[in-house]
Specification:
Order of helices and strands: HEEHEHEEEHEHHHHH
CATH class of the largest domain: Alpha Beta
Largest sheet: 5 strands, mixed
Strand content: 15-25%
Number of helices: 9
Number of domains: 2
Radius of gyration: 28 Å
CATH superfamily of the largest domain: Lipoprotein like domain
CATH topology of the largest domain: Double Stranded RNA Binding Domain
Distance between the termini: 46 Å
Oligomer: single chain
Length: 353
């Protein structure tokens, strides 16, 4: 009899431990972010000009065997500018974005020379543009590094680095905001000897081209509101209610999942309450109610013990920072998208407390 009771008790304890086991589930969501530069609504046509200097090393590096040459900086700059025009037009944020057909600066020094206001006015008038984007600096390079390792006799890293500075002007020649800067890099690594440049011209040119295109894509988000994929997480356990909420999440039914989390919230212990509050914050964010999401993640954050450095504490702190930044950016994003903010008529929390 005692043996049976021990087995029953062990089973109950095992079931309890199993049901209380918490899992962290990672998901990805797309977030709309404001551009760095805010253009007024009347800006519909944009012209891009190349006002960058020709740097000292802006020459074609020819293959000694008269084979294919390494892509020059001038060619990479052309790829960058054409890609920038393409990406900005694809966003359909402006009616038209075009590249000015003439280089506006032909100097060969490394100093940045700004466009005079009169020149900006002339180009905008000529192209019927409401704003002008000026490329003031473009620098790109490729490098090869070869290391001897315990596994490969030659382990090579091929890298490309990019530096860009741009400015935005109104058609009267005044400047929108501060200059835009971008520094980026790409690397490829192989157990192959890339140290002989003449044998790897195609690989080098491919990487420099990719770097130019990636740079154009990234800098587009400084002028046009863009989408960014971000990681989020929610907590679950083996209880039937939490399993059902997780199923709702998988189906994209955030309101139904939040209803379950809200019902469990009041009667849960502090640790689970923090996780449920974070879950409800995520549900609100996915329901596009960032204001209430901030309220719920703040609730979770305020429940954290002082000097708590647990994984849960770090996750809640990181998520709170993300949501605070989103809430702060909403007015700027709405302005850029032409969305008028409606006055709040009290709390519109979709989560039943």
């Amino acid at each position: 009899m005692k043996r049976i009771m021990k087995q029953v008790l062990s089973s109950i304890i095992f079931i309890y431990i199993l049901s209380s086991c918490t899992t962290t589930n990672i998901i990805s969501i797309d977030i709309r972010q404001p551009a760095f530069i805010s253009f007024p609504p009347e800006v519909t046509n944009v012209v891009i000009v190349d006002n960058s200097p020709t740097l000292d090393n802006d020459d074609e590096a020819e293959n000694p065997n008269n084979g294919p040459s390494i892509l020059s900086m001038d060619s990479a700059r052309t790829i960058f500018l054409n890609s920038l025009v393409k990406f900005m037009n694809e966003e359909k944020y402006f009616n038209k974005v075009e590249l000015y057909p003439y280089k506006t600066y032909n100097g060969s020094n490394n100093d940045i020379t700004l466009l005079p206001a009169r020149k900006v006015q002339t180009i905008c008038h000529e192209k019927d543009a409401d704003a002008l984007l000026s490329l003031n600096l473009f620098a790109i390079s490729a490098q090869l590094e070869t290391e001897n390792t315990a596994y490969f006799s030659n382990y090579s890293i091929l890298g490309s680095k990019l530096g860009v500075i741009m400015r935005a002007y109104a058609k009267d020649g005044s400047e929108y905001g501060a200059p835009i800067g971008l520094v980026d890099s790409l690397f490829r690594q192989e157990s192959t000897d890339w140290s002989r440049i003449k044998n790897n011209v195609d690989e080098i040119n491919s990487l420099v081209t990719e770097m130019s295109v990636v740079g154009a894509d990234k800098i587009t988000s400084n002028f046009i509101p863009s989408w960014k994929t971000s990681q989020r997480w929610y907590y679950s356990d083996n209880s039937s209610e939490m399993k059902q909420a997780a199923k709702y999440v998988e189906q994209g039914k955030w309101l139904e999942a939040a209803d379950i989390w809200g019902e469990l919230y009041e009667d849960s212990k502090p640790a689970k309450k923090m996780r449920l509050a974070s879950n409800i914050a995520l549900a609100n964010e996915c329901l596009d109610d960032v204001e209430n999401a901030v309220k719920w993640i703040t609730t979770a954050f305020d429940m954290l013990p002082e000097k708590n450095r647990s994984e849960l504490a770090v996750q809640i702190a990181v998520y709170k920072a993300e949501l605070d930044a989103r809430l702060k950016n909403i007015p700027k994003l709405n302005k850029q998208l032409g969305i008028e903010e409606e006055p709040l008529e009290g709390d519109s929390d979709p989560i039943s407390e």
